[in-house]
Amino acid sequence: xxxxxxxxxxxxxxxxxxxxxxxxxxxxxxxxxxxxxxxxxxxxxxxxxxxxxxxxxxxxxxxxxxxxxxxxxxxxxxxxxxxxxxxxxxxxxxxxxxxxxxxxxxxxxxxxxx
Length: 114
What we know:
Elements: H1 10-22, E1 27-30, H2 33-43, E2 52-57, E3 60-69, H3 75-94, E4 98-108
């Protein structure tokens, strides 16, 4: 049984967060991991919340973001910018409090051959 204390559905929060993540310079993509692979295998479509985990708690929303950075990007700077962009976007769009934005860098894109 899911304990969803949020008046806004998790999918809506995920979409807001995904938009903010993907607009951040230095982010190549969201990383779907095992859950997305299973969704692709059985449902033949990508999960709308690929790379984003939403957990509603009494003191606010906790977001875990799984992403791939661009080759050559400064990872701490990208993570910091993602945290701020996601917090601002989700709080503005949902009028909910974000208590944590955890960024998990899952990989780096390969260097482009010129």
